[in-house]
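Project standup — Tuesday

K.O.: blocked on the structure for the chain from last sprint. Re-posting the sequence here as requested.
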Amino acid sequence: MLNGQHVLLCVIDKNEFLSDSSKEALAAACKVAKDHSSKMSVYVSDVGGGARSVETVRWHLRDQGVEEYQLHEDETRPNCVAAALSDVADECNADLVVISSAAVHAKHVDANLLAEFCPCPLVMVP
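H.V.: unblocked you, prediction finished:
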């Protein structure tokens, strides 16, 4: 499933300190990236948390031992997040996209559109 090249973590969370589901997705993406010596990118979509969400994500990445990553911030409307995320996955040649299932349940991203447009395997973490 993963060539060991590039993992893209998607964080879409209204909680500026991240929900448990987002933290689980972050931990899972970090583990996969470390286990496969992969590059890591992080896509953060602003659905309410703003700059503080980005700082929280950075803190959690450091806590997981990930120091090198490419950050993609996005301020698109919720109905465009799937397309924007898919574009980022395509641009960074991601081999795997990791996202929390809570982002789908909260309707921050349309899973059907994401599955249609995402250019690589997609993992939703509960």
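K.O.: great, moving the ticket to review. The longest strand covers residues 6-12. The radius of gyration is 13 Å.
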